[in-house]
Design goal:
The protein is α/β, with parallel strands linked by helices. The protein is 30% helix and 22% strand. The longest helix has 16 residues, at 250-265.
Length: 338
């Protein structure tokens, strides 16, 4: 037997329960890992609340989450990793657990922590997917809405690393941080179009909306073509002739992960981890995201040893004192992945 977070009905954070579950067994080609870190994504909250039944149907009791990193403890025949390997990837049957099975494990670079590896999977893939689908090229100008969020912040860094000029709309409090990520930051809200035009008088080549803040009509006008605008967050996309992109098929989904891990390992990409919780406190993690209390990604530790808890306590003390710097000297991204 193992331990996992489960829920048996839709509802608020209180439906999440620490439960005993069967120990998963890897099939041929799969590996089972002892999970060291599991990312908490806002999509987990929407699924738990019953808001995504048409897209992600749930069979109760359900184990939430996908994004995990850990150490292989059993490998199926023909698996791409061996016992003892440090890997990360997408759990096939829920990630809020002490053990998880991966169909396709990816080697975790030694320079990347388990927490960071788990934290970048869903948001990093979404950031890369939007840029790839737009086909934006070096030298062109890309407008990213929600540049202070988890997806937007990664998209800024990836685009800037490719030689793309980035303008990012964000909250006033995040202006300095988004500028530090490689974008020209402008405050969102009323008058954002004029502020963008002030820094890009000729308009923009493409627009990536990660905010879902009702900006599509003006974005199409700025880009001059609805085909140059894409959103991962606005359900009104069809009305504006804009493309919507959800999770891609597994082969394309996984193409981004080794690239992102490599960028993190070489210091070219920052994916800060904000709040770290023991697995048993998953409900508190969900509540924190709902209340928008978290800065940086929220991560669960299924095996919270003293070293991990001490590091989490130090991080919380630094935040209370106003020290938000990351190992790369950048402030953390918010956890606003819509």
């Amino acid at each position: 037997m193992s331990t996992a977070i489960t829920y048996s009905e839709y509802g608020g954070p209180e439906v999440l329960t620490l439960s005993r579950v069967a120990l998963p067994e890897p099939a041929p080609g799969q590996v089972r890992i002892r999970v060291r870190a599991t990312a908490v994504n806002p999509i987990d909250l929407r699924i738990r609340a019953g808001m995504m039944q048409g897209v992600f149907p749930v069979a109760f009791p359900a184990v939430p989450g996908w994004d995990v990193a850990g150490v292989v403890d059993k490998a199926g025949e023909g698996a791409a990793a061996a016992v003892g390997d440090e890997v990360f990837g997408v759990a096939s049957a829920g990630g809020y657990s002490r053990y998880a099975v991966l169909d396709r494990p990816f080697a975790k670079p030694a320079e990347v922590s388990f927490e960071t590896a788990a934290a970048m999977i869903t948001v990093g893939e979404a950031a890369c997917r939007g840029i790839e689908h737009l086909g934006v090229q070096p030298g062109q100008t890309l407008l990213i809405h929600g540049a202070g969020g988890s997806v937007g912040g990664i998209a800024v860094q990836v685009a800037a690393a490719r030689g793309i000029t980035v303008i990012g709309t964000t909250a006033e409090r995040d202006i300095e941080r988004v500028n530090g990520l490689g974008a020209v930051a402008v405050p969102y809200g009323e008058g954002w179009v004029e502020r963008v035009m002030a820094v890009a008088p000729g308009g923009v080549d493409c627009v990536f909306d990660t905010s879902g803040a009702g900006v599509l009509a003006d974005s199409v006008a700025l880009a001059g073509d609805a085909g140059k605008v894409i959103t991962i967050a606005d359900p009104s996309f069809a009305r504006h002739g804009v493309r919507f992109t959800g999770m891609d098929p597994a082969d394309r989904f996984h193409e981004a992960l080794p690239q992102l891990a490599g960028l993190i390992a070489t210091g070219k990409l920052d994916v800060p981890v904000g709040h770290v919780y023991p697995l048993a406190e998953a409900a508190r993690a969900h509540a924190g995201i709902e209340a928008r209390r978290n800065q940086g990604k929220a991560v669960l530790l299924p095996w919270p040893g003293s070293r991990h808890l001490a590091r989490a306590r130090r991080a919380r003390r630094m935040r209370r004192r106003g020290h938000h710097a990351t190992p790369h000297g950048r402030p953390p991204l918010t956890s606003n992945y819509r």
